[in-house]
Amino acid sequence: MGLIRKIKASFLDDWCGQCQIKMNETFQQLYTLPVTVGHYSAHKEAEYYRRSLRPVARRADIPPGVYACRVSAYRCPDCGRRLVKVYIFLPVREQDKYEDSYLFEHGELDDFIWGR
Ligand SMILES: [Zn+2]
Known about the structure:
Strand order of the largest sheet: 4-3-5-6-7
Structural class: alpha+beta
Distance between the termini: 41 Å
Order of helices and strands: HEEEHEEEEH
Shape: globular
Helix content: 10-25%
Oligomer: single chain
Bound molecules: zinc ion
């Protein structure tokens, strides 16, 4: 395998490092977090997101100064490996001000995103 593929595997969330192919995006939804500007603190545990996230239809529906979260699920078409990415940002006008992102690779959020 080539060097470029190796680099992709280590930096891209939607790239299956085992199979060296791009994974399929199977889910994406925008949410708000119950956190306003200046009050952000990092949370690693899936339980926090299950409890706190509220879905919103559009970015424009996020109130000013409130943190948002884009949750994406990916599945590798070859090995079936799945992961869920939680991307946390603060919408500031047209910009997404990046705050944190977490990967859940053991189905921690599966019931949350698929189970309702
Ligand atoms: Zn794979």
